[in-house]
Each structure stands twice: as structure tokens, then as C-alpha cells.
Amino acid sequence: MTRLIIDTDPGVDDAIAIAIAALHPGTDLLAVTTVFGNVGLEKTTRNALRILELCGRSDVPVAAGAAMPLVHPQARRDSSAHGDDGLSGHADVLPPTSREPVAGGAVALMASLLEQADEPVTIAPIGPLTNIAALLAAYPHLKPKIERLVIMGGALEGGNVSARAEFNVWSDPEAARRVLVADDVPSVLVPMDLTYRCAVDTEWMERLAASGRVGEALCALTPEYVRHYTGALGWPGMVVHDAVAIVEAITPGTLVTESLPLDVECSFGPSRGAVIADRRRQAQIDDTVPLDVRGRVNVAVDTDIDRLRALLLHGIQEKMDA
């Protein structure tokens, strides 16, 4: 049983990711915490509550976290892919909810759950890393309670929000550097390089829509998202970045990883938010001035793509008697 906290900024792909975790029988979803990102914090929090309502998981607590980055303002939202409501302009297909986020905020809720945990907990940050940076800074004594962080973010070869940067890391590079470079919690980074390779086509989406009530609603969230990614991919489909990370979080070993020293560019040049991986041999690294890194991060570099796509669908399919 994977004990899991998701930290997220829903987001169409976040919605699919949350649904997979919420419905997975081998996952104990302890909480969903929210952060600014694809849209503002009020909308990401409302979206998280309604996605859990769709999945019949109103038992899962939701707490709102950071509304802005640690240091510098976020330059822009990602409305081109996710629409003004974060869900491709179709958030109203989700059931309404009268539930409110829990008091105290995201960091306090994560800390409380870790304090209470009798087994290590996996945290899956699939938005900007602001909440996680704050958690690690404020509660360092709880780090042994974290099994690992499974982070969707970064791009080693080329970004989406700029030529070098991926959106989640670019939204708060200082927080990303705090988590990936300055700390020592075991981490898997799932970069855009791999998630693009795991993109799904319209046939996959038809199967999602036919899988049940939840799949049908999730598919109804995707029209603008699909339009955006059809232009990016060159064929009709979409990239489900965050869902790829969640599959690894709940099924460890799904993704093949490579241990790499990383750094995050925090300057205001054209590479702001870039993740820099040092792929030189260790002897070369040792013989030169090292990057200011705390060690290595397991970076996801490959997977069985057909199996991964099947796992994404399997995670959402409902039993006939549901």
C-alpha cells in the first residue's frame, strides 16, 4: 500500500493524475494540497475539491498552500493549455461541492500527516515546488518520514514555457533549487523529456471516455488541452505530464531512472528555470569545480510506453458495479 500526498495545481493533466491515485486500490491517498500554477490558488483548490468529488473521495482532505512563489512573482499563468479555469474551460462538467479546504494550510496538513505516520509517506509534487520547499525548510525533522518525492518538472533538453525551462520549475526556480539541489530527501524527477514521449492519442482518449463515469468526465475536460498539444505534438493527442509521475509514485519502478547531479538556473536570463544535469563521468566532475549540488537525483529517462499508457487507463477504469 502506497501512502501518498499529492501537491498540485489542477490543471487537466493534474485532474487525471488525482483521479488515478484516488481510485487506485493499492494507494492510501492521505491528502491533496494545492499551489498556484496553471491558474491561481483559489481555482486550483476548487478544482482539486471537485475532482475528488467526481471520484467519490470527499474523505480525502484538501488544503490550500502557496499563492505565489518564494521570492519573485510568477510572470504568467499557463492558460494557453489549461484555459482560464484550469480545466480547459470545462470545469463545470465536474460535480459541485460544498466542502471547504481544511484550515491551517497545505504545509501544516502535510506536516501533521507526516507526524502521525507510522510508515514513510510518498509525496508527489506535480505543480510548482513552493509548498514542498516550505515544508522541508520548516520541518526538517520530518524528512525521515518521507519515503521519496516523485516530482513532475524540469526539462533536460528543451522546455515548454521557454527554450530551456519547463513550466513547474520555471514558476518558482528558487523553490525547485531548494528541493532538488539543497536538500537530501530521496527524489525522482519526471521531466518533460519523458512525459512528451508518453503522450496519448485520440484512440486512448476514446477508451478513457468509454471506461466509466469518471473517465467520461475527465475526457470532457480536454478539448482546449488537446488543441494545444496537437499543435505541439504535430498529431492529435495530449501530454499527460503529471499522470506519468503519479503512476511512478503508486507503482515504483514503472519508470527507468538515471542518477544525475542537478542544478536549477535562478538568474533572470533566458535560461531561468532550466534544470541542468551533469552527465559527465564522475572522474570528470571530480576533476573540475563541482556544481553546488547536494548529491544526485534519480531522473526518469525511459519507460515501457505502451505499458505506461495501459496503466494510465487502468487507473481510471471503474468496476461494472461502481
UniProtKB/TrEMBL annotation:
Which superkingdom? Bacteria
Listed Pfam families: IU_nuc_hydro
Annotated segments matching region Disordered = 74-98
Query: Which PANTHER family does the record cross-reference, listed alphabetically?
Result: INOSINE-URIDINE PREFERRING NUCLEOSIDE HYDROLASE, URIDINE NUCLEOSIDASE
Q: Which UniProt keywords apply?
A: Glycosidase, Hydrolase
This chain's protein is named Nucleoside hydrolase
The Inosine/uridine-preferring nucleoside hydrolase domain extends over 4-308
Single annotated GO MF? hydrolase activity
Skewed-composition ranges (Basic and acidic residues): 75-87
